[in-house]
Batch of 3 targets.
Target 1
Amino acid sequence: MTLPQLPLGGASRREPVPFGFLADAEKFRSNVAPPPRQRASAGQIAGRWLLGLTIVAGLVGSLVLGMPALSTPTATQTPQSQAAQGR
C-alpha cells in the first residue's frame, strides 16, 4: 500500500472542503447597514432590573434556607445509658 504523494511546492489544485461556501462569504458582503437598534423604554429597563433582582433574591434565599440542611451538627453528644458509663 502506498501513500499518495503531493507535488513539490505543496498542493497545486484546490481541494473541496466542507462548508467551503463560508470561506467565499467575503465576496457576498452587503454594503447595506442594518437599521439602528431602538432604545429600551423606561418600563423595559425597570422590568429587566426587577427580573434580575428577583432571580438574585431567589438564589440568595435558597442558599439561606438550604445552608442549615447542608451543615452537619458539630459537638453534639449522643445520650449514653448509665450502663455504658460503667456504673
Note: The helical segments are 20-23, 42-70.
Target 2
Amino acid sequence: MTAAAPAPDPRTTAGAILPLVGGAANVTSVAHCMTRLRLGLLDRALVREEELRAHPAVLGVVEDGTTYQIVLGPGTVARVTPAFEELVSASRGEELKAAQKARNATPGKLLLRRVADIFVPLIPALIGCGIIAGVNGLLLNLHWLPWLTPALAAVASGFMALIAVFVGINTAKEFGGTPVLGGAVAAIIVYAGVARIEAFGQQLSPGQGGVLGALAAAALAVQVEKWCRRRVPEALDVLVTPTLTVLVAGLVTVYGLMFVAGGVSAAIGTAADWLLSHAGAVAGFVLGGLFLPLVMLGLHQALIPIHTTLIEQQGHTVLLPILAMAGAGQVGAAAAVYVRLRHRTDLRRTIRSAMPAGLLGVGEPLIYGVSLPLGRPFVTACVGGAFGGGFVGLFTMLGHTVGSTAIGPSGWALFPLLAGDRGLSPATFAVYGGGLLTGYAAGFAATYLFGIGRPLLSPPPAP
C-alpha cells in the first residue's frame, strides 16, 4: 500500500499564495471563516488569478465586492491564515491592523462581517461539544457506561453554559474595546444571582437574553469605555474607566437588555417552531432554495446568532439541517453536469476533485468551480436544495423534528451532530438522510433536464 502524501506545510502554502495576490503591499486585511481565506486588497488587477486557481491547495476563488476570498477548505484555512498573516506582518508590521479598520465596505456588509467575526471563532468549540453531547445521548439511550455519562454531560455543556461570556469577549474585541470588560458585563447574564432581581415586574432568570443579550451588553460596554477614555484623566483612568464601564453597562444589562434580548430570543425560538410545525414543507422549500445564493454572497454568516440562540434554548438548531439541503442540491447538479458533459474533461476533473468535499458539506469548490460559471446549473442546484429542504420541513410538520447540536458541518458530516425531539432515534437519521437523497435526486434531475443548454452540449470543433 502506498503511503498517503504528507499535508503541505501551511507556511509553504501561504508563501506561494502571497505573491499571487500582489504581495504584502497589496494586502489590507486578513481573516478567515470555516473554508475561506478572506483578503482585503488594494488593487485586484495585481492578482494572478489563473496561477492562483491552479495552485493545488486552492479549491476556488470568489470576489464579494469587499473581500477577495480564496477557498482552501476546512482545517487547511485555519492553519494557512496565521502563516499568511505572519508573512504580511513581517513586511508591513502594524500597518495591516490600521488598514483593516479602513476597509472599503458598505455599512450593512461591515456589520455582517463583524457579527461573523464574533461568532465564527466559537464554531470549533460548538462542534466539539456538540459531538460529545451526541455521543453522550447515544450512551444514555443504550444505558452504556453510566459512570461516564455525567462527566461527558459536564464536558459537553460547560461551554454552552458560559457561551455568553465568550460572545462578550469577542464583541468587545471586534468593536475596539477591552475584551475582558466585555466578558465581565456579559457574565452577568449567566450569573445565578440575577434570579433575585426583578425587572419590568418580572423575575430575571440566569441566561435570559442569551448570546443576543451578551452581544448587546458588550457592545454597550465598548461605548461606555470609549466615552470614559476620552474624558477621564489619565491618572484616574485605570481605576475609573473599568469601574464605570462595568457598572453602567452592567446595570443597563440587568434592568433592560436582559429583558429585551430575552423577549427577542424567545420570539426567535417560537417563530422557528411555529413556522416549521405549521408550514414546514413550504418554509423548508424556500429556505433550502435560497441558501446557496446566501453562501455565494457570504451572507450566511448572519444566521450564526440565530443558530446559536436556538441551540441555547432547545439544545439544537432546527434550521441547519434544512439549510444543509442546499449542498445536496449542489452535489446533484454537479453529478448531472459530469454525466452530460462527457467532452468537458476540465469540468469533469474539477467535479471529481471537489465532489468529496461537497458530500461533506463544503460547497464552495462546486459552486465556484462548476455551477456558478455555467450559470443555469447554479439555479437548478437551488431547486435541488429547495426539494431537500421541503422534505425535511414536511417531516417536521408531521412531528419528526430534526436539529443539529452545533453549527459548521453539513452534508454527511452533520450526522454525528443530529438531534431532535426524539433524540438520536433512527427516525432522526432517516429524515435527514432522506432529505439529502431528495436534494441529490432533485438537483440531478433539474440539471439534467433543464440546466445544460445546447451550446454546452456541443463538443468544441476539432483543431
Note: Residues 1-5, 96-104 have pLDDT under 50 and may be disordered.
Target 3
Amino acid sequence: MTDIFDVIADGTRRDILQLLLRRTTEGDAGTSVSQIVADLGISQPTVSKHLKVLREAELVSVREDGQRRFYSLAVQPLGVVDDWLVPFLMDAYGDDAPDIDYPGQPLTGSAAHAAEVVGRAAASAKHVVETALKRFGA
C-alpha cells in the first residue's frame, strides 16, 4: 500500500481532496474529472494521474456512469494521519486547544471526519512553523 503521507504531500492531490470535500458538503454525489479540471484549472491528464494515486491510496471512490466517472472523498485512510498527528497536537496545545466557532451547518459522517483531520493537520503545520521561526530567532 502507498504511504499516505507521500500521497497527501503533493499539493495538487490536496487540492483535489479539498475540492471533493467541499462538493461532498454541498451534497454532490460525486465529481467528474471535467468538473475537477474546470474548478482547479489544471489539465485533464494531470487530474487523471493524481486521481489514480488517490484511488490506489483509497482516498477517493469512483462511480462509473457510462463513459463518465464520478469521484467522491473516502476519508478512512486519513485516520492514519490523524493517529500520527494527535500526539503532536496534544503536546503542542494540551488543554489549551483553541475552540473554533463554525457558523455554517454542522458536517456529518465522513465530511466531519475529513474536516477534523484537515483542521488538525493545519494546527500541526502552524505549530511546526512557529517552532521553526522561534529557533531561527524570527
Note: The first strand starts at residue 31 and ends at 32.
